[in-house]
Amino acid sequence: MTAETAIRVQSLSCRLGDRTVLEDVSFEVAVGEFVSIIGPNGAGKSTLIKCLNGVLRDWHGHVELGGLDVRLATPRQIARRAAYVPQFRSGPASFRVGEFLMLSRYARQGPFSAPGQADLTAVDRALALTDTTLLRDRSLETLSGGESQKVYIAAALAQESPILLLDEPVTFLDPRYQHEVNRLLKRLNREEALTVVSISHDINSAVLSSHRVLGLKAGRVVFLDRTEVLMQPAQLAAIFDTEFLFVSHPDSGQALVVPRH
Question: Can you give the pTM of this predicted structure?
Fold first, then answer.
């Protein structure tokens, strides 16, 4: 594994109950790359992310994060390599935003240690990067969906991990916050050199944000290439079993899609 590789997956297979969810999945993600994962419902996208970050451990194959063997690593070691933003947010509602972000510093702190200056600085910086500083003293239960998602991304940033893993980060958000979150992730990838792997049900969002797209179908990798290669009628139809109409973005000319009714 080279120093330029952030994530390496070899022959990954995973069963949940009596169902094979992932089968012989192999790919690599370069340091500083933005990769979106797309595919129909039930393709194994969320399971793949959970295998990458060690949430699921009962799988066969090999997964590395920055040279770390995930199967042999502790949760604290994994958290130093990759931060995870889940699809369904279930944080301690009674906590204030600043307190919640400080919890994410556990991988950088010693047992029973009080927050130090490095922890305070990391939390301040994460709030600033996500434009959530004014939410610091708000209770999590008072936040809107969009505010909450930005706070969860801030908590991931406070870990100071070089890899950011996200499970459908704009699902259930209104158009304003979809745009804000997508723009934030692109900026973090570009300006903070974070490696980003994000599940997306929005093909257009994936194409506009990513360097490459990984397509899953029935637990297998059926596409892994640059976004311009993805935007072909036959390619998309093969992944989603449906036809799409293609239009051009009015500003950039980038090809975008809408389902054919």
Answer: 0.93
Alpha carbon 161 to its chain centroid, in Å, reads 13
Q: How many CB atoms lie within 10 A of CB 222?
A: 14
Q: Return the closest-CA partner of residue 76 out of 108, 102, 47.
A: 108
For CA atoms 57, 39, 24, 30, the dihedral sign is negative
Q: What's the CA gap between 256 and 120, in Å, rounded?
A: 42
pLDDT in tens, 9-53: 999 999 998 899 999 999 999 999 999 999 999 999 999 999 999
Choose among 26, 57, 30, 2: nearest CA to 162: 30
Q: What is the pLDDT of residues 244-259, one digit of tens each?
A: 888 887 777 778 888 7
